[in-house]
Design brief:
alpha/beta; FAD/NAD(P)-binding domain; seven-stranded mixed sheet; elongated; binds flavin-adenine dinucleotide
Length: 372
């Protein structure tokens, strides 16, 4: 027995990946909790693009608020708290404590909980450009994701800030959207190879090595609280007008807790997972941006669904395999009457009945019934 809260599934990270895993786990009948410290990439999205049925007037933060509400509607728990450590609990085959597989203890800033399965959905951090005044235009002319925002900048004057291979490739890729692309080195030495250099020379991208000293707002955009970028000022005193651009300084995966637990990483620092989104540590899963560079909301959501389904298969007893049935037939009548069904606890089944009697969750149209 433990005096801590016990969950079947604990998800670390309340972005699209973690909340989707938690929603699946909850609606598949598992006692589930999400821990979310403030921040994350979803919270920086001012307009969510490429998400079917979701208006671009919706921000990443609004989407997460609705998703938490949806999760709680079905009985999942949400803790606005940072997880500080995850450790594996010792189980002992002699006292039967290992029959359900691995167990974990999570310490957050304000709580301690135990879990049978852990999901890392911790995302990554974009490295910001070192240009004064620029960061306030995040989502309003300063972007990090070509596939999300190239369309927004189509046919405009565009900058790419950076000096790496990926900065050079994003600059050349932007030529699919506009003829006016500057690659701003900000007084740093290029780090791309000779082949990329040859490509760049053959593409109409202006490579500018002068330092970038400041950013200014577009005075024609009336919204003072959320101004759009007007351009950048360079160290030689010139001002270059831009509709917007991308900062390409790489990212840092939030994989420290997973590493401490023994999860293998890929060469680039992402958490390595298999097709079911399980890591190299039994009972530990990882989803979303922390597992790859395909940083898209829909892909994070898809990862979350994969993990949710895999967790369910891993945790629930039915259907029994023929080997399990044969083993149980050895000391039973063999007609199935000895199987203990249903396979989930009484309080979880009661929750399913309760939700069935409520109105359907309204999704983005408003709060859940009874939660107005
Ligand atoms: C400016 C910007 C605009 C974007 N626009 C779009 C777009 O229009 N369309 C699109 O498809 N994609 C867009 N993206 C990409 C999209 O936001 C990400 O791909 C998506 O948010 C990834 O989801 P995730 O759940 O994996 O990670 P995140 O959204 O980063 O969530 C991870 C969460 O884990 C939490 N966390 C980390 N460590 C801990 C801990 N120890 N304890 C508790 N919580 C923890 C963080 O606080 C964070 O909230 C954009 C990204 C940025 C930065």
């Amino acid at each position: 027995m433990t005096d801590h809260l016990e969950y079947e599934v604990v998800v670390i990270g309340g972005g699209p990946a973690g909340l989707t895993t938690a929603l699946y786990a909850t609606r598949l009948g598992h006692r589930t909790a999400v821990f979310e410290k403030e921040g994350g990439r979803h919270a920086r999205v001012s307009h969510v693009h490429n998400l079917l049925g979701v208006s671009e007037n919706v921000s990443g933060e609004q989407l997460a608020i609705h998703a938490v509400d949806q999760l709680e509607h079905y009985g999942g728990d949400f803790f606005p708290d940072a997880v500080e450590s995850v450790s594996r609990l010792e189980t002992d085959p002699d006292d039967g404590s290992d029959t359900d597989g691995p167990r974990f203890r999570l310490e957050s800033t304000h709580a301690t909980v135990d879990a049978r399965r852990v999901v890392f959905a911790t995302g990554f951090r974009d490295r910001s450009p070192d240009v004064p005044e620029l960061e306030r235009f995040t989502g309003r002319g300063l972007h990090y994701c070509l596939h999300c925002d190239a369309y927004t900048l189509g046919d405009g004057s565009v900058f790419v800030l950076g000096h790496t291979e990926s900065a050079a490739h994003v600059a050349m890729s932007m030529l699919n959207f506009t003829a006016d692309v500057d690659l701003l080195l900000d007084d740093r030495e290029p780090e791309w190879d000779e082949e990329t250099q040859r490509q760049l020379e053959a593409h109409p991208v202006d490579v500018i090595d002068t330092a970038v000293v400041s950013a200014y707002a577009d005075e024609h955009v009336a919204d003072d609280e959320r101004p759009w970028i007007g351009g950048l000022e360079l160290a030689d005193g010139t001002q270059r007008e831009y509709l917007g651009g991308f900062a390409m300084y790489g990212s840092a995966y939030n994989a420290d807790l997973a590493t401490e637990l023994g999860c293998e990483l890929r060469e680039d620092g992402a958490i390595a997972v298999d097709e079911a989104r399980e890591t190299s540590v039994d009972g530990v899963y990882a989803v979303g941006d922390v597992t790859h560079g395909q940083n898209q909301t829909t892909i994070a959501i898809g990862d979350g669904a994969y993990a949710g389904l895999a967790l369910h298969k891993d945790l629930r007893p039915f259907p029994k395999s023929t080997a399990e049935l044969e083993a149980s037939e050895a000391d039973s009548s063999g007609d199935g009457d000895d199987l203990e069904v249903p396979g989930s606890a009484a309080d979880l089944r009661a929750q399913m009945r309760r939700v069935r009697e409520l109105e359907t969750h309204p999704g983005l149209r408003g709060p859940s019934p009874g939660r107005e």
